Amino acid sequence: MSATKTAVDQATAKKALSISAGVIVEVTKALAARCSVNGKVSVDKMDANQLVQYQIAWLTAEQKIAEKFVDYAWDASRGTGDLEQEMAIVFAAETVNHVRTEISSRPSEYGIKASDLVSKIFNDEINQFLENAMAIQNYNEIADKIVAKGHFGAYGLDDDHEMFRETFKKFAEDVVMPHAEHVHRHDDIIPEDIIGGLKDMGCFGLCIPESYGGIQPNDKPDNLSMLVVTEELSRGGLGIAGSLITRPEIMSKALLKGGTQEQKDKWLPLLATGEKMAGIMVTEPNYGSDVAGVSVTAKPANGGWVINGVKTWCTFAGYANLLLILCRTESDPSLKHKGLSILLAEKPSFPGHEFTYTQPEGGKIEGKAIGTIGYRGMHSFEVSFDNYFVPAENLLGGEEGRGKGFYFQMEGFAGGRIQTAARAHGVMQAALEAALRYAQERAVFQKPIYEYNLTKYKIARMAVILQASRQFANHVANLLDDHKGQMEATLIKFYASKVAEWVTREAMQI
């Protein structure tokens, strides 16, 4: 017999979350002390404590998401009501439970006494909150309200952003979805009607100010529009639409951060219209997250630079005709990330899975698509440069930009992180819709499988996790508009990418 449902209010959820937040702060401080030597961070000690760091990062992400989810659910201006409030209560309870379960499994590793942990987060008040909030009946009611209301929770957008969402949702359904399965199964390229349609809608200028031909207001960034569009396109087809605006977004933000006025005037309007399609080249075969270790070189030659080396996981590198290349321009290895610069290199656009281009000067660029189990359409390439020439005026920031490429690149990556989250949300939304539709149609023992308790639990929990993640991403977008939220952007990318695996797997199980 399932437990009887007992109502849980916002204040109770917030109080429980404040306790779990305090525990996370305590173990984070203990970890910081353990990973320091004479007041400075020790890389060796951090390496020795990787698992604890990973788990604290995960719990921190979930904690911050839960706190914002509760705020959103009780904000009537966002169009929320009983459904969103029940979802937020469940997510808050699961978060508190995850915090105490993980840390109690190895308290000494987290630098906390087991007895202190019990008194703080295993007391009668917390136990009762979790029992009431995570009652199976709550999940059943969430699932039934989703079906009754016809949605998985209010998006909470203002009128302008909701109009954006509806416009690109229709485009995704009418133009993207009909191509998605074919492109995936045949490892095909992106159809021109998708790229052309997005050009016509101004999609590639989402992160470019109006003064440069884009649709972003001149006075302030609008990362939320980029998120909303990315999610809807990803819902329609991740590999053929969802990631198309990521590369121009990264390139345009790097240009806005570090480009000379002449470079902004030249390249931003071309990116906004889609006349120039961007490719981003940062990762190398031996360097990924360790961006400071980049080894592709650019050396001065004949009024410009010649590039040599290999980049990998360069998405859209074949079709792109303007490449942002992070390379080492300074020969002193002790400079590390301060020896990196960005060059903007032009090349012809090549559809397909391989390309080779030889410049009149003799320089060469070659690329070959990397086989993947998904994310097909755009294709990621390994690209080699052999004395590839780039004019001096294409050094981002001019001579003053030498050695600052790492910082210019990071400006674009923050937006790229929340875009990754938005892509994950689009995939989760599509999976959740398909799972619910199938559950209502598929009958076992004379009734739809949706009517079974386990199916309702799965649907409800998938929806709760998606909605919590989505609302935090929207919050981070607003932070980035004010040049804040770098850590939060990292956390939501981490969280959304991981839970997308779980949600899609659950959808397949249904």
Automatic annotation (TrEMBL):
<dbReference type="InterPro" id="IPR009100">
    <property type="entry name" value="AcylCoA_DH/oxidase_NM_dom_sf"/>
</dbReference>
<feature type="domain" description="Acyl-CoA dehydrogenase/oxidase N-terminal">
    <location>
        <begin position="159"/>
        <end position="275"/>
    </location>
</feature>
<dbReference type="InterPro" id="IPR009075">
    <property type="entry name" value="AcylCo_DH/oxidase_C"/>
</dbReference>
<feature type="domain" description="Acyl-CoA oxidase/dehydrogenase middle">
    <location>
        <begin position="280"/>
        <end position="387"/>
    </location>
</feature>
<protein>
    <submittedName>
        <fullName>Acyl-CoA dehydrogenase</fullName>
    </submittedName>
</protein>
<dbReference type="InterPro" id="IPR037069">
    <property type="entry name" value="AcylCoA_DH/ox_N_sf"/>
</dbReference>
<dbReference type="InterPro" id="IPR036250">
    <property type="entry name" value="AcylCo_DH-like_C"/>
</dbReference>
<dbReference type="InterPro" id="IPR046373">
    <property type="entry name" value="Acyl-CoA_Oxase/DH_mid-dom_sf"/>
</dbReference>
<keyword id="KW-0274">FAD</keyword>
<dbReference type="InterPro" id="IPR013786">
    <property type="entry name" value="AcylCoA_DH/ox_N"/>
</dbReference>
<dbReference type="InterPro" id="IPR006091">
    <property type="entry name" value="Acyl-CoA_Oxase/DH_mid-dom"/>
</dbReference>
<dbReference type="Pfam" id="PF02770">
    <property type="entry name" value="Acyl-CoA_dh_M"/>
</dbReference>
<dbReference type="Pfam" id="PF02771">
    <property type="entry name" value="Acyl-CoA_dh_N"/>
</dbReference>
<dbReference type="Pfam" id="PF00441">
    <property type="entry name" value="Acyl-CoA_dh_1"/>
</dbReference>
<keyword id="KW-0560">Oxidoreductase</keyword>
<keyword id="KW-0285">Flavoprotein</keyword>
<dbReference type="GO" id="GO:0003995">
    <property type="term" value="F:acyl-CoA dehydrogenase activity"/>
</dbReference>
<comment type="similarity">
    <text>Belongs to the acyl-CoA dehydrogenase family.</text>
</comment>
<feature type="domain" description="Acyl-CoA dehydrogenase/oxidase C-terminal">
    <location>
        <begin position="403"/>
        <end position="510"/>
    </location>
</feature>
<dbReference type="GO" id="GO:0050660">
    <property type="term" value="F:flavin adenine dinucleotide binding"/>
</dbReference>
